[in-house]
Automatic annotation (TrEMBL):
It catalyses: Hydrolysis of (1->2)-alpha-D-(4-O-methyl)glucuronosyl links in the main chain of hardwood xylans. The active site is at E321 (proton donor), D395 (proton acceptor), E423 (proton acceptor). This is Xylan alpha-1,2-glucuronidase. It is an enzyme of class 3 (hydrolase). One of its GO terms (biological process) is glucuronoxylan catabolic process. InterPro entries: A-glucoronidase_C_sf, GH, Glyco_hydro_67_aGlcAse, Glyco_hydro_67_aGlcAse_N, Glyco_hydro_67_C, Glyco_hydro_67_cat, Hex-like_dom2. Belongs to the glycosyl hydrolase 67 family. Its EC number is 3.2.1.131. It comes from Pseudoxanthomonas taiwanensis J19. Homodimer. The lineage of its organism: Bacteria, Pseudomonadati, Pseudomonadota, Gammaproteobacteria, Lysobacterales. Residues 485-708 form the Glycosyl hydrolase family 67 C-terminal domain. Residues 164-483 form the Glycosyl hydrolase family 67 catalytic domain. Pfam families: Glyco_hydro_67C, Glyco_hydro_67M, Glyco_hydro_67N.
Length: 732
């Protein structure tokens, strides 16, 4: 379109009808929906603000005072120039001093003498915090972003840009921000051959083969996106890792990535295979108490820090799902973690030791295993060890009660592990905003030290007085143009970062910011989008695993329903182990009369979950085996309620489709179209989950469907016959 206009004016510069033609063209352009977008820019789109929003920034951001002497300072200044130019439609003038009202002034007392007066106010903001304030600098009204460090100033710059992106006024600002959690990391489950375990966004963005020489510009955009939400670390390789990741060749590649990420405050970490001393070290054992093994790890740590001076440390999956670990030598998790911690300590590195463990011998209830293995070692882990605990005791199910380890290891810092990639939540095509799931887990009250002992307070260290704190998110990032496999999955990366920065933040506020930055500042777009997002987690729970059901998906790949899955290598990899449906009822009895997993919670929580009258309905079948005709709060029988929940989930997806369809023309065509098609897939699959589950459970309940509920269109055998040998992301 632009080229047509250009050639027209070049060929017929003075033609009388030209103005009219241009006017027509303009009218036509204005009538078009916003230009197509492929999602690459994530929430950092910086498209021009609409005129009514723009008006309020008329006098602001015309000048930018921001030193650019260090790489981090340059990152901040470049981002501000890029962002303000795009949003306000004019590049700010770079200046050494504010010469007019409305300048934006960014720096530290060390980098900008003008900010020296703020020194006292920066106390308590630490190395990553910042303040944003409307004040006077050099006698002029200015917006100041000030911090103790360049990194704080970069985080503050992103915050300032967010304010403009979301249309907030810059007048009268007085904000102070510092992260509440220290280690905020993505965990990439990326293999060295670029296969991403549980990845639904294409292959790994780490092009190991071309590293260290080719530094894909995408690495910088990855760092920008992470820094914009406060993520300060990345574990590059899968927890099920090859020891090769620790060989010199790969360390050099990791160092190249670290050099791209460094200006953005992002440290590189690696998953370490516990048996590496044997596999790449030539030792006969990996016993953590063997002096030669200990020396091998010390030498390895020295080598790593020679290559990557600010290396973050190791993430370790040990004695879980067949991975090697200290128990292979009769040693404990603490023995294993402390050996690595000792090697990293002189360099300031940390160990993130995962509590997602379950042994070769099947326990009576997998739910109990991590607690049983870890609680006896509370207080025995070295100071630079964090124990990394999944939000629930089973495995990133659509909904789980909080993990009983939270609150049960007061002398050990526990970091949260959330999954951002949607292994159990419909892969990339289902619109499921994970903010409410994260919020629910973080706000859960463990009662460990009386009421109000929330998981968030354990994760941020405030309840138990830990300085080393962390949150990890299993990344949903791949080479897809839109990074996450779908436009809405970008929101899950975004909300993870924001909640890692502040585990007390609200999912809805974050969704609103994201929607404004990603789609439009128009409330007619933002509000419907936020409302779709906020109900989407409950919807997926409803159509997949309502009322506390869990682990009912297809075997291995975890795609689609598989409540009939049974047999195979171990019972706790089947569905029947978890739902226990029979003629009498359904659900896993985890009360004192069953596995007593409920006994791992603090007494008030155990009492609540363990009692059929007080257990929240969303966890009913997680903790109880309940008769089909049990009366629910609604007055319906359990069976009728179950069917109703499935239907409610499918209906919600239908509602999202309608809401989204009504936004046509308000969101650019390319993204609108893909979301619309994906919602169609989601509806089809939600219905498939509902139909297959009802067809299966009805063979036990032997009850008719409640009035108005449609019978599944196929018989059970049909659903059972479906095979998906090439479903993406399966473990290898
Ligand atoms: C799940 C997932 C695996 C992964 C494991 C883990 O079981 O399916 O692919 O390796 O979690 O967290 O270690």
């Amino acid at each position: 379109m632009i080229s047509i206009a250009r050639s027209a004016s070049a060929k017929h510069p003075a033609r009388p009808g030209l103005l009219g033609l241009l006017a027509l063209l303009l009218t036509w352009l204005l009538a078009l929906p916003a230009a197509a977008e492929d999602g690459y820019d994530l929430w950092l789109r910086y498209r021009p603000l609409p005129a009514p929003v723009l008006k309020q920034y008329r006098d602001q951001g015309t000048q930018l005072v921001a030193p650019a002497d260090t790489a981090t300072q340059r990152a901040a200044r470049d981002e501000l120039v890029r962002g303000l130019s795009g949003l306000l439609g004019r590049a700010p003038a770079l200046a050494a001093q504010a010469r007019r009202d409305g300048a934006i002034v960014v720096g530290t007392p060390a980098s900008l003498p003008q900010l020296a007066a703020l020194q006292g106010e920066l106390e308590g903001l630490g190395e990553e915090g910042y303040l944003i304030r409307s004040t006077r600098i050099d006698g002029r009204a200015a917006t100041v972003v000030a911090a103790n460090t360049d990194m704080g100033a970069l985080y503050g710059s992103f915050h300032l840009l967010r304010l403009v992106q979301t249309g907030q006024p810059l007048a009268g600002l007085d904000l102070r921000e510092a992260p509440k959690v220290k280690v905020r990391v993505l965990n990439h489950w990326d293999n060295l051959d670029r296969y991403v375990e549980r990845g639904y966004a294409g292959e790994s963005i780490w092009d190991w083969h071309k590293l260290p020489d080719w530094l894909d510009p995408r690495y910088t955009d990855y760092a920008r996106a992470n820094a914009s939400v406060g993520i300060n670390g990345t574990v590059l390789n899968n927890v099920n890792t090859s020891a090769l990741a620790l060989t010199p060749m790969y360390l050099e590649k990791a160092a190249a990535l670290a050099s791209v990420f460094r200006p953005y405050g992002i440290k590189v970490y690696l998953s370490a295979r516990f048996s590496a001393p044997i596999e790449i070290g030539g030792l006969a054992t990996a016993d953590p108490l063997d002096p030669a093994v200990r020396q091998w790890w010390k030498d390895k740590a020295d080598e790593i820090y020679r290559t990557i001076p600010d290396f973050g440390g190791f993430l370790v999956k040990a004695n879980s799902e067949g991975q090697p670990g200290p128990q292979d030598y009769g040693r404990s998790h603490a023995d294993g973690a402390n050996m690595l911690a000792e090697a990293l300590a002189p360099h300031g590195g940390i160990v993130m030791w995962r509590a997602f463990v379950y042994s070769h011998e099947e326990p009576d209830d997998r739910h109990k295993q991590a607690y049983n293995e870890f609680v006896p070692h509370d207080g025995r882990f070295a100071d630079n060890v964090l124990v990394q605990v999944k939000n629930g005791a089973i495995d990133f199910q659509p909904r789980e009660p909080f993990h009983p380890l939270f609150g049960a290891m007061p002398r050990t810092p526990l970091m949260m592990e959330f999954q951002i990639t949607k292994e159990y939540l419909g892969f990339a095509t289902h619109l499921v905003y994970l903010g409410p799931l994260y919020e629910e887990a973080l706000r859960a009250d463990t009662h460990a030290r009386g009421p109000g002992s929330t998981v968030a307070k354990i994760v941020d260290g405030s309840l138990e007085g830990h300085a080393l704190t962390g949150m990890a998110g299993v990344a949903n990032i791949g080479v897809d143009r839109n990074w996450s496999g779908s436009h809405f999955d970008q929101a899950n990366w975004y909300v993870f970062g924001r909640m890692a920065w502040d585990p007390h933040a609200g999912a809805e506020d974050i969704a609103r910011d994201w929607a404004r930055m990603t789609f439009s500042t128009d409330p007619a777009v933002v509000e419907p989008v936020v409302s779709m997002m906020m109900g989407s987690h409950q919807a997926v729970v409803d159509y997949m695993t309502p009322l506390g059901l869990h682990h009912l998906m297809g075997r291995g790949h975890h795609y689609g329903p598989g409540p009939w899955v049974e047999g195979g290598p171990r019972a706790d990899w089947t569905s029947v182990y978890y739902h226990r449906a029979d003629a009498r009822g359904i659900g896993f009895d985890r009360t004192a009369s069953g596995s007593n997993a409920v006994g791992q919670y603090a007494p008030p929580v155990a009492a609540q979950f363990g009692n059929l009258d007080t257990v929240p309905e969303e966890f009913l079948l997680w903790f109880h085996h309940v008769p089909w005709d049990h009366r629910m709060a609604s007055g319906r029988s359990l069976w009728d309620e179950l069917v109703l929940r499935y239907d409610r989930g499918v209906d919600y997806v239908r509602g999202m489709r309608r809401t989204w369809a009504a936004l046509e023309g308000k969101v650019d065509t390319e993204r609108h179209h893909q979301v619309a098609v994906f919602l169609g897939i989601q509806e089809k699959e939600a219905k498939w989950w509902r139909d297959a589950s009802i067809a299966y459970f009805q063979t036990f309940s032997q009850r008719p469907l409640p009035e108005g509920a449609a019978p599944p269109p196929h018989g059970l055998e049909y659903y059972k016959s479906l095979q998906f040998p090439y479903a993406p992301g399966d473990g290898k």
